[in-house]
Amino acid sequence: MSKQTLGQSLYGWLQTITAVLTAIILVFTFLGRITPVDGVSMEPTLHTGDLMLVRSIGYRPRQGDVVVLTKPFDLTEGPIVKRVIAVGGQQVDIDYGTGTVYMDGAALDEPYLKEVMRPPWYGGLTSVTVPEGSVFVMGDNRNNSNDSRDVTLGTVDERYILGRAELVFFPFRNFGRIQ
């Protein structure tokens, strides 16, 4: 058996590291990514500092999904996390008097909400038909969430969606599937 020179050994390690980094980049680009939660708009479902696994490939938004999107608005920077309330073609009506959201005339069952919704400080939409290829999103902490009710965000084109938040994996006390 022949001995490798230092240069040959380093070259072998460099090839291995390059292959691993390429695989990681491909996985995060096409299959999913790790995204942190920043803010309180999704409490009690998600908390600031939670790290989530976000699935990208083959994802089509559905009502009730928690998604990560990149549409810039207001003073928000970076990815934002919200729940899909309605998809293209559906009608959303919001009754702030009762704190109820209706989708196509039916009241949504929303056990994930932090508290009863009050009118947002920024005004807010009360009725909208979601355009095809778009979604209407809201935070689970409705009283502390800039979301589709804010005209600066409004309905969100599906092309801004990075994917569905599937799992919190850190911190370990919050580990679990995102519902």
Radius of gyration over alpha carbons? Answer: 21 Å
**N to C succession of SSEs:** HEEEEEEEEEEEE
Name the CATH architecture. Ribbon
CATH class: Mainly Beta
Going by CATH, the homologous superfamily would be Umud Fragment, subunit A
Helix count equals: 1
Helix content: 10-25%
According to DSSP, the number of beta strands is: 12
Sheet bearing the most strands, described? 8 strands, antiparallel
Report on this structure.
The mean pLDDT is 90. It is built from 1 helix and 12 strands. The chain has one helix spanning 6-31; strands at 32-36, 51-55, 66-69, 80-87, 91-95, 100-103, 106-107, 127-129, 134-138, 156-157, 161-170, 176-177. The chain has a single domain, classed as Umud Fragment, subunit A, CATH 2.10.109. The strands form 2 sheets. Strands 1, 2, 3, 4, 9, 10, 11 and 12 form an 8-stranded antiparallel β-sheet that branches. It starts with 5 loop residues before the first helix and ends with a strand. A hairpin with a 5-residue loop joins strand 11 (161-170) and strand 12.
